[in-house]
Specification:
With 617 residues, the chain is an alpha/beta fold. The chain contains 20 helices and 19 strands. It is elongated and about 120 Å long.
Length: 617
């Protein structure tokens, strides 16, 4: 034992030493991420999130991301930049970063203005920046650009394609230096469209005024959201709060150029893909950290991704999917009620179908019964038929009860299956078990329906020679699944010399035996007693009566309950109707027999069916 302990310690120490050596071979890389305004200013904040995640995923080295923000870019005041440059130089005086990553045009401009003062030989990557905002003439061999290319005409074309009646487009853009630059670019590029639509520019308005005008927007108007980092009143708007407030009051659909704003308020269209640009940026950074020279890496500016649309916004503004460009992707589509509750809907329609069939059958039988009663004085045979119809009416109520139980089970198993499918990962075994249970319940419903069909046919009143052994075995076949699933031990003892024959209606006797066996199974499944045993016997007694005995090991009942079991509407079940046993008793008595019940020691009940014996020739 002592040797094993020492060996384990030596092995653990070796692992620690190897791990330390491995970590030494893969030193940490320091990445300075410089934000244009702050960490929460869209769209750059979304690109930064993706870049951080992708660096941690793609980099073979540990990456330490150090983030700082160029707050002076909000108002275009370059005077404080000297102090910020001094701060960064002091911060990285001993150990400069391995690479500088600027997010957005303001950060790119700052880095290019102070390249020599900051990190003259440090590789730099300019990303999340439009290609027009980078001064390529002063890029050094240590600089590379991962840029995007805006296409404002494509955005207007998209609006006019899906909303051809548009007459006005409200252009929401702020008043920061970066936003003023894009104001001029958009005015120039969209000038050819002024003969089709009019443009309202919101750059000279405070945000409360923008909200007021958006709420009062006229018909056939669309809103283009560019950015609102600083409004005309000088108020800074961080994160997506301003867009959310605009959406809450806007009386027109909202469009944009960047996918970072997509997901709640935006209708959609061609936009920049945050994920693709973030992945491309991280890949370039990893290549530079791996030894490649930044100036040797050339990345073409990425244009708009294939158009995507928000299904919820299409519904809100009544935009037909047929107007969308070919190859468009629709997201956030809400599943139909059939997709969300498939098995529940199947169960509901199955229940309605069965209920409709029963109602039709009842109406039909009621019509025949009334006609028989009218002719009872003339045709004595109508009396038997009337009695038959009354029995069928009682039996139908019992069958409805029998069907309701498996349908409820189907709905329960279906709901459970959907919940298991929603798990991550889905629990396939539980779903398979639920589907098997549903199939079992469907078979049970099918057996009951077959009995209904046989019962309601005119010829079903005819009695034929029936071998009770064969009849009981047929019923046991249909209940075999329930017996096994409830852990019940089945014991049978069939008289076969001579075989027990009776003259009876097979469908009615099957229903009686099925009812007794089902009651026994349910009684034992609800019981907390240990062993569950179901014993079924057929025999011929000394009085030439054929006897069927159904005995269970359930909780049984007291003497008072035994005297009420065959009374209509008395039941010991929470969901029972109290018609099953009275109908069984009436069927047996109509065949000239008797149905009795007694308690069984130490627990359980014994049902005894006696019928006149028919000698088989």
């Amino acid at each position: 034992m002592r040797r094993l302990t020492v060996s384990s310690f030596v092995l653990l120490l070796a692992c620690v030493v190897c791990g330390a050596a491995f970590a030494a071979d893969r030193p940490q890389k320091n990445v300075l991420m410089l934000h244009s305004f702050g960490r929460d200013f869209k769209p750059w904040s979304e690109y930064a999130k993706v870049v951080r995640n992708e660096l941690n995923r793609q980099s073979p080295w540990p990456v330490n991301i150090i983030e700082h923000s160029l707050l002076s870019a909000l108002h275009g005041d370059e005077n404080p930049e000297g102090s910020f440059v001094g701060y960064l130089r002091a911060l990285f005086a001993r150990e400069p970063p391995d690479i500088v990553l600027s997010m957005g045009a303001p950060a790119a401009g700052f880095v290019q203005r102070h390249r020599q003062q900051l990190f003259a030989n440090t590789p730099m990557v300019f990303t999340a920046v439009e290609q027009r905002r980078v001064q390529r003439s002063i890029l050094t061999e240590n600089d590379t650009v991962v840029a995007v290319a805006h296409d404002f005409p494509a955005i207007v074309d998209n609006i006019l394609r899906i909303l051809p009646d548009t007459k006005t487009i409200a252009m929401v853009i702020g008043a920061s230096p970066n936003e003023r630059f894009w104001l001029g670019e958009m005015r120039r590029e969209l000038a050819p469209y002024t003969h089709r639509v009019s443009f309202e520019w919101y750059n000279d308005r405070a945000f409360p005024e923008i909200l007021k005008q958006a709420a009062e927007s006229p018909a056939h108007m669309a809103i283009y959201w560019h950015s609102l980092n600083v409004d005309a009143a000088g108020v800074v708007h961080e994160s997506e709060t301003s867009l959310s407030k605009l959406y809450a009051v806007a009386n027109a659909p909202i469009f944009t150029f960047d996918g970072s704003f997509f997901g709640q308020e935006i209708v959609g269209g061609p936009m920049h893909s945050v994920l693709k640009l973030g992945q491309a940026t991280a890949a370039v950074v990893v290549r530079i950290l791996g030894g490649e020279k930044a100036g040797d890496i050339t990345t073409p500016a990425s244009g708009f991704a294939p158009p995507i649309y928000d299904w919820r916004q299409l519904q809100r503004w009544g935009i037909s999917e047929t107007r969308l460009p070919p190859g468009s992707e629709i997201r956030f589509r809400e599943p139909t009620i059939w997709q969300r509750h498939f098995w529940t809907m199947v169960a509901i329609f199955a229940a309605l179908a069965v209920q409709s069939a029963l109602i039709i059958a009842l109406f039909w039988e009621d019509r025949r019964r009334r006609r028989s009663e009218a002719n009872a004085q003339v045709l004595m045979g109508g009396l038997a038929h009337t009695n038959r119809i009354a029995t069928a009416g009682q039996l139908t109520a019992s069958i409805a009860h029998e069907i309701r139980q498996p349908l409820a089970s189907i709905a329960s198993f279906s709901s459970a299956g959907l919940n298991w499918l929603k798990r991550q990962p889905p629990n396939v075994e539980e779903v398979r078990s639920g589907l098997e249970n549903i199939i079992n319940q469907v078979h049970r419903v099918d057996d009951v329906i077959k009995s209904v069909n046989a019962l309601f046919k005119n010829e079903s009143t005819a009695r034929t020679e029936v071998n009770l052994n064969t009849l009981v075995r047929q019923v046991l076949t249909s209940t075999a699944r329930a017996v096994v699933s409830n852990g019940i031990v089945l014991e049978t003892n069939f008289a076969d010399n001579p075989s027990p024959y009776v003259m009876a209606n097979p469908g009615q006797l099957q229903q009686v035996i099925l009812n007794l066996i089902t009651n026994a199974i349910e009684a034992m499944s609800a019981s907390e007693h240990g062993a569950r045993t179901l014993r079924i016997e057929t025999s011929i007694d000394q009085t030439d009566s054929v006897v069927i005995t159904v005995a269970d090991s359930g909780p049984g009942f007291d003497a008072k309950t035994a005297g009420q079991l065959f009374q209509p509407f008395f039941t010991t079940k929470s969901s029972g109707m109290g018609l099953g046993l009275p109908i069984c008793k009436s069927i047996i008595e109509a065949h000239g027999g008797h149905l009795t019940v007694a308690s069984q020691a130490p627990s359980g009940a014994v049902f005894r069916v006696e019928l006149p014996y028919h000698r088989h020739e």
